[in-house]
Write a structure and sequence with these properties.
With about 190 residues, the protein is mainly alpha-helical. The chain contains ten helices and no strands.
């Protein structure tokens, strides 16, 4: 705590903005994984259940497959998630570009930001937060765009009781609220 008190307020503010921006990039990454879960896994599951008329449906197996699929997607890189989502046939070019731009900014922040800022970061002027604030906004708007364009309008005919309880109990909305995104989307 003593070390924190000695740091300049603008230095702490830069780290706070960087942390918030990195967090928003992670929100976008998780949204891409959730998009794949809905578009690939749940759509395929629905088709199989309809084809078999519900015969041989094993809820425990389904929940395990659901969890495994989601964990597998979360274990891939954001770049791999972007490539998969770009492959959706109903993705327009603007949305693809917006997602690619967000990935490029996220990669820049994660891999290059501190190295590039090392010299200028030694001065108060070099610790300006405008770039980080812009990047945080970029990640947030990309997430909202993905959510509205891909997740929301895709009714896939799977009733609420078929979704594992952890997800059914407002997981996505809770995620939106914690991210500070629900308000800007009008979600309640």
């Amino acid at each position: 705590m003593v070390e924190q008190a000695k740091e300049a307020p603008d230095l702490m503010e830069v780290f706070a903005y960087f942390g918030r921006t990195a967090y928003m990039a992670n929100v976008l990454e998780v949204a891409l994984a959730q998009t794949l879960l809905q578009v690939e896994f749940m759509t395929n599951l629905r088709a199989t259940v309809l084809k078999n008329q519900g015969k041989d449906f094993d809820r425990a197996r389904y929940e395990n497959e659901f969890d495994e699929y989601y964990e597998k997607e979360l274990g891939t890189t954001m770049g791999q998630l972007v490539k998969k989502v770009e492959g959706f046939p109903d993705q327009n070019d603007e949305m693809k570009q917006r997602i690619k731009d967000a990935l490029a900014r996220r990669n820049h922040l994660t891999h290059n930001y501190w190295r590039e800022q090392a010299y200028t970061f030694q001065t108060a002027k070099g610790r300006a937060i405008a770039e980080l604030s812009k990047d945080k906004y970029c990640m947030k708007t990309r997430f909202i765009a993905v959510f509205r364009a891909i997740l929301v309008p895709r009714p896939i005919g799977i009733s609420q009781h078929c979704i594992p309880s952890g997800w059914r109990n407002g997981h996505v909305l809770s995620f939106l609220r914690c991210s500070g995104i629900a308000d800007s989307m009008g979600a309640t």
